[in-house]
Each structure stands twice: as structure tokens, then as C-alpha cells.
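FAQ
Q: What does a multi-component entry look like?
A: The components come first, one per line:
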Amino acid sequence: MSNISIYTDKLRESGLRPTRQRLKICEVLFSPEKTFHFTINDLTKIIENKLSEKISLATVYNTIHAFKNKGYLKEISINSDKSYFDTNVTEHHHFFDEDTNELIDCNNDDIDSVNIKKNITGKKIKSVEVLIKVASDNQNQN
Amino acid sequence: MSNISIYTDKLRESGLRPTRQRLKICEVLFSPEKTFHFTINDLTKIIENKLSEKISLATVYNTIHAFKNKGYLKEISINSDKSYFDTNVTEHHHFFDEDTNELIDCNNDDIDSVNIKKNITGKKIKSVEVLIKVASDNQNQN
DNA sequence: TCAACAGTTTAGAATTGTTTTAATGTAAAT
DNA sequence: ATTTACATTAAAACAATTCTAAACTGTTGA
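Then the predicted structure of the entire assembly, as C-alpha cells:
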């Protein structure tokens, strides 16, 4: 199952040359059947553990940002010290578990589509994100 | 127009003693007629400029977090290097202007209320936030 | 094929927002 | 008044992210 040409295309589409390091990143991001959420730290650890290859943080950031700008990754709006990304780039929303700091996809069956009646003059809507924060019942606010 | 007793109450409710510095913060946050959005940096600058008093960053953070935990301030979920807060603690949503990094209130007339049909087992919904990112038409993704 | 260029990788340094620390100061209870 | 617990402060620590500059590599075109 060589997806290398797919990865190469994605990289070129994102304005990046297909290098060994970047292909490794693609493998981690785009070969799993299920989409997933990750932080840069998560991703770096996965690469180091699974692929026993060390990649510079700067390379990871650079590649992830290019993919995000191209639309191959989505950044989730969440207030956190870290940035969260999603390999699922279709329109969908999220639960955020405050107990575990975990993001959970919200299926389209679980929520009605959001209907926005007005927009800011001269501006175009780039995205609509719904974040539902949840926590155990017996949990204080923060 | 002395709101000092109101401020004192808010501070005590938040588990904080009413000190000179904290009353100054209250004045900036709660005396304006209109609610507003701010970052810690914004707030610190307002205090220094308007009140010609210097307050330690640690005090600002400490006070803002206590107010947030008590529900006198809301933190907006937005992916940014900084945290954004809102003195409007009623249920409402936001536009975020990517060109200017500005938050704009979304009136309840502008958006239908979000209907969530399913929840995570054993968890309670703490908040539902909608963030509508906008930018000029002729603007690239990032 | 190979030289030359433009883009890439890397470790480490720099930057930025936030939190912690430890010494000093102050509100409030006794 | 005295005591105690909480506050303020500047500075240090910290963590995520970005930048830097030197070494390296893919690509292009002669």
C-alpha cells in the first residue's frame, strides 16, 4: 500500500517539496483509516515512536502549517496553551472534554446545522465552528 | 458613581479580598456601559494608561482567572497565541475577523440557537460556543 | 551529468504568553 | 494591637511556537 504519490501530490499542492521527513509526516497523518485529532507534541511523539526517526520540531511546524493553509488539515478553535489539529477536514463540530482535554467529533446527526442570518459587511465567512465543552457532573467550573 | 461596593462584592464572591489593585481592575472591567473583549495585555495597558497605575502582571492574571471561574468573565474559545476574555457573560456567540484579529459579538437575532441532540455519557454540557471566522473576500486562507 | 540555485533540515536560540517563586506588604480576625 | 492568612511584586521559570544560520538536498537547466 504505497500512497507515496498521494503524499507527494499533497505536499506539492501545499507548496512543499516531498522530502523524506515530510513523507513520514504524511504517513502518520494520512494513512490511518480513521481521522484523528492531535497536537504538535502528539505528532512528534508518534513519529519518534512508530517510525523511530527523529524529525526537527521546525520541520513539523512548517509542514503542518502548510497543510493547514492548503486545507488538508483543520485547526480547532479551542482555548488552550497548545494548538489542536484535525485530519478530518469535512464540516463538523466538536465536544471538548475538560476532564481529559480530549476532543471528540460531533456527528452531523448530533447537532443541527448552524444557521447564520447576518454577516459582517465586506467579509466572507471562512468557517463556522461549534465547540461544546463538557465535564463530569461533579466538577467545578475550571 | 461609586460602584465600589459592587466591586467589593464581586471580588468577595470570587474568593478574593478587595485590594486597591483589584478595585482598579474592576473599574476597568465593569464600569463601561458596553461590554467588551480583551486580552490580558490589552487590560494591562488600559490600566497603565487610563489609571496611571502600574499593576503586576501576576495580579492581573490572578484576578481575571478568579472572575472567570466565578462566571463574571467569559473566556472565548479561539485558537490564538493569546487568551481572549469577554465582559459579556450572557449566552452569545462571536464573529472573529481574521484580518484584524478582532472579536465581534453575534446577536441572538443573527444566529439560530444551536440544538444539540446527543451528549457524551456521564458528562454535563458546560458551554456551547459558536465561532464564525470571517475575512475579506480577497484574502488567502491564513 | 553536473553545476548552481532555491528550498529544506536541524539544533539551538529567541520570543511570547502564562505561571510560579519567594520576599515583602496588607486586610481582617482575634 | 497582634496575629494570621492572603496579596503584591519583580524576577525567574516554563512551555509552545517561531526564528536563525549553517549545512544539506531536490530540482532545473546548461
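Q: Is there any commentary attached?
A: Sometimes. For this entry: Chain B has a mean pLDDT of 91.
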